[in-house]
Recover the amino acids of this structure.
């Protein structure tokens, strides 16, 4: 049968940076410390295409995904990112003319959360992973991985709270009483979605659960599925005692990473983005940053 | 050329309720009282298909949309719903074997909003319209229309505020002072999206802008694009003086309609739905209702 | 603590048809005949709200979801729809003043598919379920369930193929040779997404896998993740030997249900919708129908 | 009133790369050569934030968007990208402590298309624009712009067609007749979405309509809203005479740019991405590339 993919390109050939599959949904079984977890993951995989070749022959990618991912039912992988590493390496093995490959995945992920042990329930977060493999000399393959998480929390605006204090004190002079100095006052709150990503050398590991904890600690408060009346009031007051702009959420998160992840090298590249779905506006407010962990450590250790 | 659509169906023929096009994007020019507005509208159109016919011949629908919608550039229509009426009627004319038709459309729509005249800006809302035509006796065509709007606003939770009051009063005894009895206290706020739809006989008109005003009045507060510091505090305090569950938003909206739209008949069918994108939870909270305007008037006029 | 939900409504009270939670993501463990499956499901739950009560107290719904769904990790349910039934019943138990409840869920679902056993891989489909409970006399609760599936397949347009035949025969007279009479000719193909839903009395069971098979049989061809070169050509030719409009897909599906599901009663209500993401247009083409299984049987059994 | 934004940050201060607004919907009036066009555009705007400042004071961004965008009703801009340039410059003017800014926008855009003049209708495309401003020495501001377009078209797979030829020729020996050598044979088609972006110095202009033409020429065929029967067959045959992988679409597009845009400098940076919504698979197939126009010219001029 004629191999149309292996023909020279019709148009004068460019090497193309990426050719692949996207939006491939698969179940992935992951072995966590204490339990098996099945993720509904969405994969994208790609390789580069040399100038002399018409097509990438993508059926190999679909086969490979079936081999690596479908078989986790019987042989679970350690993590979403280790599945991506394995796929990125296999892509290079199956595409001998490719020099680089990428495997990305995204999945909803559940962790138990609760204001107290009897209020725990499974809450949803997002896991993200990307592995990029590059063919080096003598058949060596070099893999870099990104591991990301997203967590939804609550923020309370510090600016409106200050201005409310001024306005309400005119109307309610008693608010000026020293005993009410730290009384949290009304402001606007919002659903905040924050994403944190580490770019690591293969071999360096990072626990997604701890990344999620870092995000939650940077928001005014985590959010919870189950809040009985007293709980709800306590979460509200706690969030209003920690009012934060998106700028504050981002800096608080970035400042905490050096100490929270002491095992990670200074060369680890960090990306963070936070989105506030404003309750007081129809649009969203966002902040983002990217730096090495070394740069963040230098700024956050006085 | 063979007309494959007009062949008898391969499988034993069922009459099918709806066959048509969806996700057809078109610019639609509308003549408002004082200005021309160009909407980027998304249309769906359909007719029923008799049992004896294989295909509906959908190219007629695309032609018709081009004729009716593209030509509003030079001959603007009065509203999104009048465009839908015209399309629904034309669908029946072009599909002689059809007995019913439907034309639906959705578009982002802009209105000036501001806490004061010098803070005005164009804010985004959503317009929805559907026209359903039915062939009656002697060539008569009967059309029923739905006109809908969506508006985003702000809500503050009344329950958490009450419980916060109890908890904070223990810590701040001065809060029990009568002069602070109506001091708004912290609670959680959220972005609220509410949709209102009227189902009307053709000929009965309703102004979308007034539907949007009805929704905004039912939320704890409208939201605004431009809020300088003092404004923001005033909006926050105002919203917290009108704390509302989704249940309250919905009832307040429904209760207001009879008086706000005195010209509409009791037989007008009303649908309303409100979604609160909770700041304190990862999930949304929703409420919905459907009733005739007559039923709503009976309940809301003491 | 004050129960704000139990207060009378501020606005004159309407009974509200539905108040609840939406977009609640949870992992659900399902015991299939031969294996455990973990779905990432998205739930919506609601109850009605009597006229005399201000709020529905939605924290009960979140608790209930945690109890029913989170615990399937250790006690798997039989299906997505049985989870919904259990939730709908529990909603009525937890909301004594409610008279009706609804629990809906949606999840991506995987089945092995392949043109041959050595080409099998897990492909993604969608499961849908809704249970509606209604309080009857003497504490009886009546539950009706909807079970739905969605499957993506391939369609080839029969109309363009006929017209291509006429046009190409002018250019290639040999096409008129009787030996080429059934040669499949070029037309446009598209990704087709079809949804089938059954509304059943509780107690009546239907297997989602067989619903998916019914949809796939009605499309021009199923689609597959893994297609090596020869396979791809065979699938293409097979699809072009079964060219189908959306009208044909829908009728073929509806006509097959009576015989495919002989155990289901004539009173079972069927909804079906098919969307063709046209390759030759920027818009989609759709067809939908709703009927009882009895009506479909009457039409499809000559 | 206290300026909370101007306070020093609570956490040790990092400079943040971007703080801003996203998902701001606005109507934008653009003066095209021959007509006024109103776009429903979605904007995102951001500036960097110096280490010593707590908040960016985003209300200035909302004010600025209202001034620049809302006023295009009376003073139309030349293009989406020129609106972005103006906003990016104004952002720097309003945020004296910022050193860089970005304004991005996206809008659906309509052009007349048809297989013949009497079949023309308005079809939807996408416009994208980004302007990045950077403060230089002596108050100079340097702006770089990206201008992008997306167009949906049709592709036919060349590989399946070749393999179909082999398989069908066994069954239909007449297909080997030399007179049928260029008979287009069945394969799978798909909806293809291709995006092209140029990164230009301010002052260098590029016409979006011509970028869209470049994309359409690289696909197997454009798609059309109105296709009467004979047209549809002609488009199908034409597309099958130009079968193309995503790799071919991308290379064909890239190879054409040097000659199509002779006025653009070699330093212009080009990004292109093409997505094929496979009819024969449930997943998508993608290809992407990035290069300077100089590199593309070197490769495409033999």
């Amino acid at each position: 049968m004629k191999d149309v993919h292996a023909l020279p390109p019709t148009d004068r050939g460019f090497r193309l940076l990426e050719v692949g599959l996207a939006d491939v949904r698969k179940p992935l079984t992951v072995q966590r410390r204490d339990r098996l977890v099945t993720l509904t993951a969405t994969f994208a995989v790609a390789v580069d295409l040399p100038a002399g070749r018409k097509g990438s022959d993508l059926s190999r990618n679909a086969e490979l995904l079936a081999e690596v991912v479908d078989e986790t039912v019987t042989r679970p992988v350690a993590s979403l990112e280790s599945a991506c590493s394995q796929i990125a390496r296999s892509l290079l093995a199956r595409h001998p003319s490719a020099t680089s490959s990428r495997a990305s995945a995204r999945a909803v992920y559940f962790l138990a959360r609760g204001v107290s042990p009897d209020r725990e329930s499974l809450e949803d977060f997002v896991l993200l992973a990307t592995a990029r493999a590059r063919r080096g000399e003598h058949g060596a393959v070099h893999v870099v991985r990104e591991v990301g998480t997203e967590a939804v929390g609550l923020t309370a605006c510090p600016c409106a709270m200050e201005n409310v204090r001024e306005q309400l004190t005119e109307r309610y002079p008693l608010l000026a009483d020293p005993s009410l100095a730290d009384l949290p006052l009304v402001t606007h709150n919002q659903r905040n979605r924050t994403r944190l990503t580490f770019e690591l050398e293969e071999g360096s590991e990072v626990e997604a659960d701890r990344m999620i904890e870092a995000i939650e600690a940077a928001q005014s408060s985590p959010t919870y599925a189950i809040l009985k009346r007293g709980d709800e009031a306590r979460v509200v007051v706690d969030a209003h005692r920690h009012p934060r702009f998106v700028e504050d959420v981002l800096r608080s998160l970035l400042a905490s990473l050096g100490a929270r992840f002491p095992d990670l090298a200074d060369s680890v590249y960090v990306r963070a983005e936070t989105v506030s779905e404003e309750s007081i506006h129809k649009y969203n407010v966002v902040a983002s940053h990217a730096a090495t962990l070394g740069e963040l450590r230098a700024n956050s250790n006085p």
About this structure: The first helix of chain C runs from residue 59 to 70. Strands of chain C lie at 16-31, 36-49, 100-113, 121-135, 141-156, 189-201, 221-222, 269-277, 284-292. The radius of gyration of chain C is 24 Å.
